[in-house]
Amino acid sequence: MIRFGASGWRGLISDDFNFHNVRRVVHTLSQYVKENPEFGMGSPEYRALLGGARMPVPVVVIGHDTRFLAEEFAHEAAGVFASDGVKALVSTGDLPTPAIGCAVRRHKAIGGLMVTGAYSRAQFGGLRWIPFFGGAAAPTISGDIERRLELMGHHPIKMMALDRSLRESWIVEMDFHEEYTRQILSLLDAKTIRRARLKVGIDVMHGSSRLYLRSLLESLGVEVVALHEGRDVLFGGQSPDPTQESLGDLAALVKKHKLHLGLACDGDGARYGVLDAGGEWFPADDVLGLVFEHMVVNRGLKGKMVRSVVTSHFVDAVAKSHGLETRETPVGFKFIGEHLRTGQYLLGGEECGTLSVAGHIPDMDGILAVMLVLEVAAAAGVPLAKSRESLFKRLGSFFHARTEYRMERSRQVLELEERLRVQPPLDLAGGSVWRIDQSDGFKFILRDGSWICLRSRSPEPLFRIHAEAPTPQKLAVLLDAGKKLLQGRF
């Protein structure tokens, strides 16, 4: 059964992710854009976006990452759309997912389809639907698509031949590189970056940032040493996910060449990872605090902050120091994107390496994120750790960690969650619990500002533990307390 999660549908290539199922999903999307009253062609919001004009036929944008058969799946999708009377603007090469979101908005398309497995292992392919506003599809959208798929069955899906679809302009091949680059540059302080003359290492992890990140950096006078820019459908034997563990080569490069920063993006350019001078890992939790401070102090911008429930409260302290609000959401950028769409929020992000800003698509953009980190470093003239230390002295310290705890059976997860709901602990790690947030998992906030959040990872019998405290010692105590909770010792 095909299910659309927070980042669309993913499946094993040639198993459930195959040409037959891709055709079924695309045919369903054709029906969806024509019939859905809230996000289809008849949507009042979409009509307002068109300024009263009418699109003679639905238009979608299609792109793909560097995975095995990704380009072929993209052209298969375009052929189905063409047969269904939907015009497709198809990328001429692999590109980052955020570039598709930007193209959707620029060309006023009803939506975009990205063929990507994002940061998953090489065996997985995927499709991600991007509505006309350029952000992640909300649960109501993915739910409608799933229902239509179930009703459709497995009858053969028609496709228009490529030569005919090109001749009749149902498929138009386009290069979105320049327009995406212009959009990113419009969000940056180019003078500050050029003046700093920084030297950075980059790791695009064989993904679809490979033709974008270096050129952006070099256009701003940044000296670049790059890793893994070639296409490799196996991603060097690891998941294209820029974590501390996966960026060992980049850390060694930064240290060897004495570079200012190491910047990395995942397989489709949506997530990011950052290494400070000396190759030291710099968490996304801390990136958000530094970027928000920079945008308010150095850029003179104002607006609220929005983050997920498991993201550090460091950025809350930064925002509060400037008299600005922070909003907390469940995990998933689709929730953050909904707030960014209102225009009231300056920055949105998560601890897992996702970020976007006002004036951009309401979706995660790893390339934008690392360019903003570059700008922060250029403006400060010191390593990121120094800037963080300065903020900690003014606002207090924030140490955070994430770990996992596996149970033997799924039934244990359900039983523990029920117990936490009915009889939660009121004392934890030697302190009293001030508030319990159950909007996404179980977040216990202590009176000193420390917190711990337990989230199950269905369908696996697995919990993820997130915690934050003002000292490393208190953080260790919190993590130990979290494990005791999951063992039922409360």
- CATH T-level fold name of the largest domain: Alpha-D-Glucose-1,6-Bisphosphate, Chain A, domain 3
Strand order of the biggest β-sheet? 1-5-4-2-3-6
Q: Architecture of the largest domain, according to CATH? A: 3-Layer(aba) Sandwich
Helix content: 25-40%
Within CATH, the superfamily of the largest domain carries the name Alpha-D-Glucose-1,6-Bisphosphate, subunit A, domain 3
Number of domains: 3
Structural class: alpha/beta
Outline the biggest β-sheet.
6 strands, mixed
The whole-angstrom Rg is 23 Å
Shape: globular
- Count of helical stretches: 17
N-to-C span: 39 Å
The total strand number stands at 21
Mean pLDDT: 96
Describe the protein in words.
The protein has 490 residues and is an alpha/beta fold. It folds into three domains: 9-176, Alpha-D-Glucose-1,6-Bisphosphate, Chain A, domain 3 (3-Layer(aba) Sandwich), CATH 3.40.120; 187-395, Alpha-D-Glucose-1,6-Bisphosphate, subunit A, domain 3 (Alpha-D-Glucose-1,6-Bisphosphate, Chain A, domain 3); 399-486, TATA-Binding Protein (2-Layer Sandwich). 38% of the residues lie in helices and 22% in strands. It has 17 helices and 21 strands. It has helices at 19-35, 44-49, 70-83, 97-106, 139-152, 162-167, 177-186, 190-196, 213-219, 248-257, 284-297, 314-321, 333-340, 366-380, 384-395, 410-422, 472-486; strands at 9-12, 59-64, 87-91, 111-115, 124-131, 171-174, 199-203, 223-227, 261-265, 272-275, 281-282, 304-308, 326-329, 345-350, 354-357, 399-406, 427-428, 431-437, 442-446, 451-456, 462-469. The strands form four sheets. A six-stranded mixed beta sheet has the order 1-5-4-2-3-6, sandwiched between helices. Strands 16-21-20-19-18-17 form a six-stranded antiparallel beta sheet, with helices on one face. The two termini are 39 Å apart.
